[in-house]
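Whiteboard transcription, Tuesday session. T.W. wrote the C-alpha cells on the left side:
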C-alpha cells in the first residue's frame, strides 16, 4: 500500500463522481 495506490483510487473516485454528477445535472435540466 503506497501513495500511488491511494492517488489511483482517488482519481477513480473523482471520475466516477464527475460522470454521475454530469448525468444528475442533465436529468435535472431535462425535468424543467
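and on the right, the sequence the group agreed on:
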Amino acid at each position: 500500500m503506497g501513495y500511488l495506490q491511494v492517488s489511483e483510487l482517488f482519481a477513480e473516485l473523482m471520475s466516477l463522481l464527475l460522470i454521475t454528477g454530469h448525468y444528475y445535472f442533465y436529468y435535472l435540466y431535462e425535468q424543467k
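Someone added at the bottom: The first helix runs from residue 3 to 31.
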